[in-house]
């Protein structure tokens, strides 16, 4: 009998321990997730001392620059043209609702005034100002939410040891205290979540450098949620979401498409989605990269993302003088002009009842389904039945009614050739 009671006790303790490790998002957090999904479009900013070399944010690793030499860079980082008002206004003009900026990338350099290191913008650069604080103040003035991209991976800290797959040529000693590194990382996150107002989310990256390490994520995630319960946590580990995360991201890919090869096994979870993409082929400023994506292709990607029930985070890598390059500015303004006209069919929507197809995607909001014809195949569109009676079919661009037929096979709509829009022909189904 005693044995049975003991086994039962152990079972109860285990149950309660499991329950404790199960993250239960707070009501503020759930509200923030809704806001996030409604917002749909954000600006990603990769900016750091690496921009001085105009060769992307991986330059330290790719050019095998050791730590000693890399430390010369901050002296050249003097972005006198940096005007946070200009950046935030540009994001707004593009129709973006939030900004995700690199607080720290893999080179470990803090873009804010960290008290835990002097490897930061205030202590090491002639500029000497906390650009994150300046941006946070401006975002709150203009009503844009601010998120931080924060790298787990660190090529600078000696306690980032044992080292992972990258950063081998940074010239660090073969010793270090891993848990001190994690304490340092948590300490820096606490600074960011205490001194910069309300933070929309933390966007982790670099976990993949040491996939099997003890990252103590539960502790880090609990710290973030205890400081700011509404702060959304996402982690670009290219795996299925972990307990404690609030959204799932897909790098240069739409949820479930697996076109990039980062992780063919990546599972699509139940959390809100975000997909991120570059405007040329680089994240950090790259002087020679002229592979600019067209406005049309970026609008179509944004619309597709919405059809996949995902947000779109579009990257700019500002120049070392603090300016965003004119090619990006022009495209962003054009995207904004499009969103001014057609944003209703994207903002506040969720993925529509017809799954993405070769011709395009659908989004939905209230009693409306928006069909986005991105690559029309002919003038007659056949949608599979999705269990709702369609009352009217309207061409969004003109407001005119379109002929349609609904039967057991689905809904067939004729779209006159003259109404086809080169970027996106939007058809509204009133249900
Ligand atoms: O290594 C980074 C890279 O520099 C960039 O920040 C992107 C953005 O999604 N993520 C990493 C690669 O997965």
Compact description:
This protein has 431 residues and is an alpha/beta fold. The protein contains 11 helices and 16 strands.
Can you give a write-up of this model?
With 431 residues, the protein is of the alpha/beta class. The protein folds into 2 domains: 2-350, TIM Barrel, CATH 3.20.20.80; 360-430, Immunoglobulin-like (Sandwich), CATH 2.60.40. The protein contains 11 helices and 16 strands. An 8-stranded parallel beta sheet has the order 5-4-3-2-1-8-7-6, sandwiched between helices. It has a 5-stranded antiparallel beta sheet with strand order 9-10-11-16-13. A 3-stranded antiparallel beta sheet has the order 12-15-14, with no helix packed on it. α5 packs across α11 (326-342) and α8 (178-194) runs parallel beside α9 (217-227). The termini are far apart. The relative contact order is 0.12. Mean pLDDT is 94; it is low at 5-20. It binds ligand FHN. Residues 57-58, 205, 236, 251, 276, 283 line the site of ligand FHN. The site of ligand FHN has 7 residues, from loops.
For the report, how would you describe the main beta sheet?
A: 8 strands, parallel
CATH class of the largest domain: Alpha Beta
Record the strand order, biggest sheet: 5-4-3-2-1-8-7-6
Q: What is the molecular shape?
A: globular
What's the total number of strands?
Answer: 16
Taken together, the total number of domains comes to 2
Share in helix: 25-40%
- The sequence of SSEs as H and E is HHEHHHEHHEHEHEEEHEHEEEEEEEE
Beta percentage is 15-25%
DSSP helical segment count: 11
């Amino acid at each position: 009998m005693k044995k049975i009671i003991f086994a039962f006790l152990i079972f109860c303790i285990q149950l309660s321990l499991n329950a404790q490790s199960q993250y239960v998002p707070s009501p503020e957090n759930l509200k923030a997730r809704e806001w996030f999904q409604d917002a749909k479009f954000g600006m990603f900013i990769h900016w750091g001392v690496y921009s001085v070399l105009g060769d992307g944010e991986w330059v330290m690793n790719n050019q095998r620059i050791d730590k000693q030499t890399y430390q010369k860079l901050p002296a050249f980082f003097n972005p006198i043209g940096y005007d946070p008002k200009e950046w935030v206004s540009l994001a707004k003009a593009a129709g973006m609702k939030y900004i995700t900026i690199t607080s720290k990338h893999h080179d470990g350099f803090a873009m804010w005034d960290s008290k835990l290191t002097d490897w930061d913008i205030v202590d090491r650069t002639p500029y000497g100002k906390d650009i994150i604080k300046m941006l946070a103040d401006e975002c709150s003035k203009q009503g844009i939410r601010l998120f931080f991209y924060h790298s787990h991976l660190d090529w600078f800290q000696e306690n980032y040891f044992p080292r992972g797959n990258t950063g081998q040529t940074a010239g660090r000693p073969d010793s270090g205290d891993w848990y001190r590194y994690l304490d340092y990382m948590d300490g820096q996150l606490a600074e960011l979540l205490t001194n910069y107002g309300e933070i929309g989310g933390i966007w982790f990256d670099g976990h993949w450098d040491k996939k099997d390490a003890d990252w103590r994520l539960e502790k880090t995630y609990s710290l973030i949620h205890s400081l700011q319960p509404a702060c959304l946590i996402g982690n670009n580990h290219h795996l299925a979401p972990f307990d404690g995360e609030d959204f799932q991201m897909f790098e240069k890919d739409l949820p479930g498409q697996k076109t990039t090869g980062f992780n063919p096994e990546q599972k699509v979870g139940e959390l809100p989605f975000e997909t991120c993409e570059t405007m040329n082929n680089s994240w950090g400023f790259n002087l020679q990269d002229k592979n600019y994506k067209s406005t049309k292709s970026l609008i179509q990607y944004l619309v597709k993302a919405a059809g996949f029930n995902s947000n779109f985070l579009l990257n700019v890598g500002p120049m070392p003088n603090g300016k965003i390059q004119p090619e990006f500015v022009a495209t962003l303004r054009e995207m904004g002009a499009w969103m001014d006209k057609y944003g209703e069919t994207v903002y506040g929507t969720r993925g529509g009842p017809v799954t993405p197809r070769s011709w395009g995607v659908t989004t939905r909001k209230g009693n409306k389904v928006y069909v986005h014809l991105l690559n029309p195949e002919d003038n007659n569109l056949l949608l599979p039945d999705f269990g709702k009676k369609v009352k009217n079919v309207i061409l969004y661009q003109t407001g005119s009614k379109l002929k349609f037929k609904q039967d057991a096979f689905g809904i067939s709509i004729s779209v006159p050739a003259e109404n086809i829009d080169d970027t996106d022909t939007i058809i509204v189904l009133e249900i």
